[in-house]
């Protein structure tokens, strides 16, 4: 596939460095870096959210009762 892309300066420098190190052309260097980036993103560890039981919570279905429990009998 042929296309035109604009590379940031740091990316262009990395491509040029790879070209010099491996004695390869621009397309080969861009393809190699793209493959490395794509492979790295697929190997990411799955995020797992862990939860811990905190015991019985406060039943707030009756607001007046919850306020009395939290603030005491003279909460008004």
Question: In words, what does this structure look like?
Answer:
The chain has 76 residues and is mainly alpha-helical. It has a domain at 9-42. It has helices spanning 9-22, 26-42, 63-71. α1 crosses α2 (26-42). The N and C termini lie far apart (74 Å). The mean pLDDT is 87.
Mean pLDDT, to the nearest integer, reads 87
Topology as H/E string? HHH
Give helix % range. Answer: 40-55%
In angstroms, what is the radius of gyration?
30 Å
User: Count of helices?
Assistant: 3
Parts with pLDDT < 50 across at least 5 consecutive residues? none
Largest sheet: none
Helix/strand/pairing category: mainly alpha
Report the β-strand fraction as a percent range: under 5%
Number of strands: 0
Note the overall shape: rod-shaped
How widely separated are the two ends?
Answer: 74 Å
Any chance you could write out the topology, listing elements then pairs?
Blueprint: H1 9-22, H2 26-42, H3 63-71
Helix pairs in contact: 1-2
């Amino acid at each position: 596939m042929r296309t035109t892309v604009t590379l940031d300066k740091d990316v262009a420098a990395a491509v040029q460095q790879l070209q010099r190190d491996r004695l390869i052309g621009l397309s080969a260097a861009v393809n190699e870096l793209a493959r490395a980036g794509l492979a790295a993103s697929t190997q990411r560890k799955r995020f797992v959210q862990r939860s811990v039981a905190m015991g019985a919570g406060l039943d707030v279905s009756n607001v007046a009762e919850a306020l009395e429990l939290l603030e005491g009998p003279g909460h008004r």
